[in-house]
Amino acid sequence: MNNAAERESILQDRIAELETELSETQKQIEDIHAVLESSFDGILITDGQGKVLMLNKAYERLTGLKEEEMIGTNMRDHLNPEYMPRSVALLVLEEKKPVTIPQITRNNRSITVTGNPVFNEKGEIHRVITNVRDITELNSLRQELLRAQAMEKVYAQLESAKTQGKGEDYIAVSEGMKLVFATANKVSSVDATVLILGESGVGKEVVAGYIHENSPRSKSPFIVVNCGAIPEQLLESELFGYAPGAFTGAARNGKAGLFETAQGGTLFLDEIGELPLSLQVKILRVLEAREIMRVGSTKTTAVDVRILAATNRDLEQMVANKRFRADLFYRLNVIRISIPPLRDRVDDIAPLSLYYLNLFNNRYHQKKRFSYEIKSELERYPWPGNIRELKNAVEQMVVLGYDEFLQTGDLPWYQQQSGEIKARPVQVSGIIPLKQALEETEKQLLENTLKKYRTSRQISRVIGIDQSTVVRKLNKYGLSTE
Fold first, then answer.
1. Would you state the pLDDT for residue 449?
2. Which candidate in 281, 318, 388, 398 could, as Cys together with 360 as Cys, close a disulfide (CB 3.0–4.6 Å)?
């Protein structure tokens, strides 16, 4: 009897010990759960065969995989070519060492997944601890840093882009413009006639000015004449001058023309393709004889003037159509410089834009700066008006832009489009849960905003939320700023 009582006492003591151990184990498990749930990183634990034992809420949030669909399943069951082509837990079991891989989750977030093996006393993998860290915003910040560094590089490039010369407007980064200025520099030291060709606004006058400023005539006048801007009946007297009493209303002492005004210097005949045939022969006479005759006079006057001419017309075709004298064309076409359009020399766009940005900042007492996005947009735009259009666009942005950092929404063509975009009212068909309605509203708003703005920074400014929130919501709805 005593033995039975003794055995019962021992058994009860053992049960009490086991209950204490169980309680302590349960407390340890609760503590482990608490630790796991306190982690901002996602954590998943599998056994030595890849079976999921435990995961925290952060893992659910980051991956979009829920606890009820994961616990008790094998990681092999979740392999998916879209959002989980590889499982870090399975890689750890295969390689028997820590493994780190990048992944894109099914809710479109960028994550870094690290798996660490836990070995038992036999050297076998007993557990695999998987850590998931969200790097979506880190990647966004990294991209912002790279963009800022790229802009700093462009600002630094501006100084090296300035071609040697006495002027400040001579920006050349592209090979095409380097060749243009190299040719211009070579011909500046001689008095040969130069014909400068190119579309309207490419900078023909700038190249002509460069030739003059680097020539022995640089101390003498540089006179620019737009042959298409002066009425035909006045152009002859403007170029050659007139004698006293040459016509009704003429000055009593007559007037010197632009050839005489440019004496010793350079006369730049811009848009020479617009010159009437009646004056072409007289220009040819000046080129050959180096003398002019005023309107209403019979006396010739010697002129020492270098002629530079430019046009955006096809003079050879005009010669074929008998709209331009062949002999004058050959006389002008001693040296030809062709300036490529701005769309064909993208490397020049950023330095030119920054040059004009600095120019207009100083003029209007502003401190505007370009964002990386606006640089990219400037380089994508076709610039039908070439440098003239670029200069006007930068001036408009400096004057009208609200923020220090100019954005793509400040570009003139975006300003024009914004007046044409009609606000689309949010529509909800039928009766749906409020949460779904709010999500539909958010998604529509972001989709509409992405039609005009290209970066999370711009979107956050326009709709009035933090940039990090914009990034998170874009990822949530599978939208992209690219």
1. 81
2. 398
Beta strands 125-134 and 255-256 are unpaired
The chain-wide mean pLDDT, for the chain, equals: 84
- b/e per residue, 227-266, with b = 16+ CB within 10 A? beeeeeeebbbbbbbbbeebeeebeeebbebbbbbbbebb
Q: Which helix (H) or strand (E) holds 278?
A: helix 277-289
Say if strands 42-47 and 52-55 run parallel, antiparallel, or are unpaired. Answer: antiparallel
Residue 75 and residue 87: Cα distance in Å, rounded? 7
List the strands of the sheet with 99-104, edge to edge.
52-55, 42-47, 125-134, 110-119, 99-104
Q: Which CATH architecture has domain 39-134?
A: 2-Layer Sandwich (3.30)
Check if the beta carbon of residue 74 is closer than 8 Å to that of residue 50.
Answer: yes
CB burial class (10 A; 0-12, 13-18, 19+) of residue 67? middle
pLDDT at 85: 86
**Residue 66 to residue 52: CA distance in whole angstroms:** 12
* Gap between the Cα atoms of 304 and 263, Å rounded: 6
pLDDT for 167 beyond 50: no
pTM confidence score: 0.60
Report whether pLDDT(389) > 70.
yes
**222-226, strands of its sheet edge to edge:** 222-226, 266-270, 306-311, 194-197, 335-338
Distance (Å, rounded) from C-alpha 276 to C-alpha 228?
Answer: 9
pLDDT at 377: 87
pLDDT tens per residue across span 293-346? 888 878 888 999 999 999 999 999 999 999 999 999 999 999 999 999 999 999
Q: How far apart are CA 345 and CA 352, in angstroms?
A: 11
Contacts with 243 (C-beta within 8 Å, 6 or more apart), sequence order: 254, 294, 295, 296, 297, 299
DSSP code string of 223-253: EEEETTTS-HHHHHHHHHEE-TTSSTT--TT
pLDDT tens-digit profile of 467-480? 777 877 887 887 87
Give Cα separations from 260 to 44, 105, 167, 188, 241 (angstroms).
89, 77, 25, 21, 8
pLDDT for res 481: 67
More confident residue, 447 or 144: 447
- What does the pLDDT read at residue 420? 43
Among the residue ranges 28-42, 118-132, 345-359, the one predicted with the least confidence is 28-42
Q: 175-339 sits in which CATH class?
A: alpha beta
The burial of 279, by beta-carbon neighbours within 10 Å (0-12 exposed, 13-18 middle, 19 or more buried), is given as: middle
Neighbouring C-beta atoms of residue 155, cutoff 10 Å: 16
